[in-house]
Amino acid sequence: MAVTDTQNTSLYDRLGGEPGVRKIVNDVLNRNLNNPLIGHHFRHVNMEKLMQLVFEFFSMGIGGPHTYTGRDMRTAHTGLHISENDFLEANKDTLLALEENGVGQAEKDEIIAILDSMKGEVISQ
Ligand code: HEM
Fold it and tell me: Would you state the pLDDT for residue 1?
């Protein structure tokens, strides 16, 4: 069986393990920071720390070996007033970063589905 078989290989491994996932997370967050529509949300944030926490969060969620040390999604986004449109804009940044990193369609679909599943915990809190 091929090692890229999506049934048997974790999403973490299919994205290139730690270096692959770290690069994608950093690229997404840099896009968010530089996106004129949502960048204001990140202006006073310690981006290095955020990159580490988001990396841990995804690693833990997609089959990687890391433990997430941050707050739960609802608590972390409370008071940020993230709109539905902000959420869609962030997803667009994610797709662009995934394309830039040569991520396949199946993986892109899985990642967007994961993000969409958490929308209710992130927006308008
Ligand atoms: C499903 C989508 C999302 C996930 C999985 C996610 C994940 C995270 C994680 C893991 C943290 C760190 C939590 C902590 O500091 O303890 C965080 C913080 C943060 N997120 Fe999100 N996030 C999502 C959507 C968004 C969106 C759409 C925005 C804004 C457009 C956003 C803005 C922020 C900001 C500004 C922080 C830093 C808060 C602070 O430092 O107090 N997030 N997010």
Answer: 47
Q: Could you tell me what percentage of the chain is helix, strand and coil, using 3-state DSSP and rounding each to the nearest 5?
A: 65, 0, 35
Measured CA to CA, the distance from residue 95 to residue 100 in angstroms comes to 9
The residue whose CB lies within 8 Å of the most ligand 1 atoms, and thus the one to mutate among 11, 41, 77, is: 77
What digits encode the pLDDT tens for the residues 58-92? 999 999 999 999 999 999 999 999 999 999 999 99
88 lines ligand 1 (CB under 6 A): no
How remote is the CA of residue 27 from the centroid of ligand 1, in Å?
Answer: 15
Residue closest by Cα to atom 9 of ligand 1: 54
Residues 6+ positions from 117 with CB-CB distance below 8 Å: none
Ligand 1 proximity of 41 Cβ (cutoff 6 Å): yes
**Ligand 1, atom 17: closest residue by C-alpha:** 76
pTM for the whole structure? 0.95
- Indicate the fold that domain 11-122 takes in CATH: Globin-like (1.10.490)
Q: Rg of the chain over CA atoms, in angstroms?
A: 14
